[in-house]
Write a structure and sequence with these properties.
Blueprint (H helix, E strand, L loop, with lengths): L2 H23 L1 H4 L5 H25 L2 H24 L9 H24 L1
Length: 120
């Protein structure tokens, strides 16, 4: 397995883990998103599809793969930016496992961007 595919899979997995926790914590209430759980789930359908498509396109080394890789890299930074800088709420996303996922996701997001730059 190529390094880019491996780091992409780790980054995407951490993103999905964070989103599982987000559903448990009812992130739509924290961020005041419309539609409650239904809106939250519907919003994630295209996100998850694009993550899977990205893995396929990375394997083919296509331009869409490069674009999705960069988006996923930036996406790895978003949980950190949102929950540790912009919307810090006591009691939310502050458990050991949550912090581990968020900080590792930021690290893999940056790594995804750096490694992708050498591939495409």
């Amino acid at each position: 397995m190529k390094p880019l595919m491996l780091i992409y899979i780790i980054n995407a997995s951490l993103l999905l883990l964070h989103e599982i926790e987000s559903a448990y914590i009812k992130e739509w209430e924290i961020l005041k998103l419309p539609g409650k759980i239904t809106g939250f789930l519907l919003m994630h359908i295209p996100i998850i599809m694009v993550l899977f498509l990205g893995a396929i396109e990375i394997g083919k080394q296509t331009m869409p793969g490069a674009i999705i890789t960069m988006i996923a890299g930036v996406g790895g930074l978003i949980p950190f930016i949102v929950h540790k800088i912009i919307v810090k709420k006591k009691g939310y996303f502050d458990s050991k496992i949550s912090n581990c996922i968020i900080y590792l996701n930021a690290l893999t997001g940056i790594t995804t961007l750096v490694v992708a730059a050498s591939y495409f």
